[in-house]
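Tutorial, part two.
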Amino acid sequence: MTDRPTENPTAGPSSRLRPADLRRAVIGAPMAGGPTTPELIAAVAEAGGLGMIGSGYLDAAATREEIARVRAATDAPFGVNVFLVDRADSDAALAADPGALARYAEALTPVAERLGITLAENPEFSDFDQEATLAALVADPVAVVSFTFGIPDPDTVRALQAAGTAVVVTVATVEDARRAVAAGADWLSVQSAEAGGHRSTTTIGETPDGATTVELVGAVRAALPEVPFVAAGGICSSQAVAAALEAGADGVQLGTVLLRTPEAGTSTLHRAALGDPRFGESRPTRCYTGRYARALVNDFVARYDPIAPAAYPHLHVLTGPMRRAAAQAGDRDIPPLWAGSAWREADAYADRPAAEVVAELWDGARG
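Running the prediction step on this input gives:
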């Protein structure tokens, strides 16, 4: 049993969970699609941090099931991350080049034939059941709900807070940080271009800047001196934790460095790629989902990144069968291999228990 706040604190600003309430102000990134498991969330909690469910592409029923599994694994507080998908933004991105999605699908035909699969036909818009998911989180609250890809409206923020939940918004710019605070966010996750996986830009057509974690943290702290936030992006060493804290963050969020822990649900193929010296870089690309996400540069990224359109979530739906088939076939030249900019530094923590990784990175920075 950890000496931690209870999962569902009573409503009120002072009682909602914040980074300073944690024994170690470390957030386990909500890595959707498999890597973040109940076991990983429990391990981060054991070390005094906060684990997060990556509900991402889950519907409300699946999110409730995942919450139940986490509660069975730990009695510590945890959170749920929700993707905010805006139909108007998606339509605007498609309208900017109406034929782009069809051209991209045609360009992917050789890959589909190689795998012996058919790409998703006429991929349609989906918001991944976000309204029902949010209603479920109000009805059965968790300690923290965070948002990616958008700023929740004030009514949503207030409903969650009234249930005792701390509301966190993932932001990639100072302007979005200001907007999130104006909407009532309790604290922020400040995510730089160094982060693995998706960058939390708030419009699909937006090209993220190249700001480092330290640069973005410093800018947000200067603009919002009283707002609590954690830093995310390229944090795979005690030195990186210390640099983020020195720049003004109240804590850090770890993702890539946890991917090869035993508790993570990372695929065998992805684990092997992260330790393979033949991969020379990771970079943001739209080629898998239509939104920028940082991945190791395999053959697919190198070939298709230059022609990938800003079409989300349609590209995510289109490439889904391809990504799954390639992963099942063990073909690392095709599927997304998400990795932050400092993935090489994570080699030192490969196969180490997640609780040890969290404790060592935090204590090394603070000591």
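The chain is about 40% helix and 15% strand. In part three we will examine how such features are distributed along the chain.
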